[in-house]
Amino acid sequence: MINKKVNNVQDALQGIENGMTIMLGGFGLCGIPENSIAEIVKKATTDLTCISNNAGVDDFGLGLLLKKRQIKKMISSYVGENAEFERQMLSGELEVDLIPQGTLAERCRSAQAGIPAFFTPAGYGTEVAEGKEVREFNGKMHVMEHAFNADFAIVKAWKGDEAGNLIFKGTARNFNPCMAGAAKITIAEVEELVPAGSLDPNEIHIPGILVNRIFQGEKYEKRIEQRTVRQIF
């Protein structure tokens, strides 16, 4: 069994350079690879194209990379709660490709499965379909979308083993599973790293074959993007 473990986040991110395309798991602030994002900020890597559902908030997650002007282009499904993302997009400082959320997920999954392109009805008749091949299937028009071509995919899991097998917890699973194995190199940061063979095979969500490097993260903040509490009367 191949050991995918690396000692720390610095070793895990070896090879990430200016101008690369990087997938980052998470939804808002839920399930984001906090340690890896913080290290990319510290490395001051620039001109990045980031594929992520959104860009977190202004002072956390991918918002930290936006604040430092390290992202050249965002490929996302919505702007979210990030005012800086919105400002840079509207001012033309940031190139943005907004695509339907299901299409975003499927473009990741297709890359993971080695499928170069697929047809979807989402976006037909809108700006999303401009310049793309369109075909009719069963009386309904569909738009052809291409799988992503990313250099690195960085995902976050609750638990993993040294062989790269991953288990996610609750809604923190979100985009992480479909991004694992969807790039040339996949990095997994986990809250708990155990010896290979320690995980119950029936509980594994992503097999280690889709992961190239794995490390145990630390000091997770796990911020809540929108806190909703019940009013006490």
Automatic annotation (TrEMBL):
PROSITE patterns: COA_TRANSF_1. The keyword Transmembrane helix does not apply. This is 3-oxoacid CoA-transferase subunit A. GO terms for molecular function: CoA-transferase activity. Keywords: Transferase. Belongs to the 3-oxoacid CoA-transferase subunit A family. InterPro entries: 3-oxoacid_CoA-transf_A, CoA_trans_fam_I, CoA_transf_BS, NagB/RpiA_transferase-like. Signal peptide: none annotated. It comes from Flavobacterium xueshanense.
